[in-house]
Write a structure and sequence with these properties.
The chain contains three helices and no strands. The chain has helices spanning 2-27, 35-47, 49-57. The radius of gyration is 14 Å and the shape is elongated.
Length: 58
């Protein structure tokens, strides 16, 4: 039970981190990257273990 709650908390933290990076990429990095480069970075973020953990927790 205790580890389940910890996993939920970490999932929430990772979800917030992922949301923050998505915001940064969409609003700031976009100014100097080509759309193709932006897409690669976005796909990389979605494929990282941290993002996968956040998605699994939802």
């Amino acid at each position: 039970m205790k580890s389940s709650k910890m996993m939920m908390i970490f999932g929430n933290i990772f979800s917030k981190i992922r949301s923050h990076f998505s915001y940064v990429i969409e609003n700031e990095v976009y100014n100097f990257l080509l759309p193709e480069e932006l897409e690669v970075i976005h796909e990389w973020l979605l494929s990282t273990n941290i993002c996968s953990a956040a998605i699994d927790m939802k």
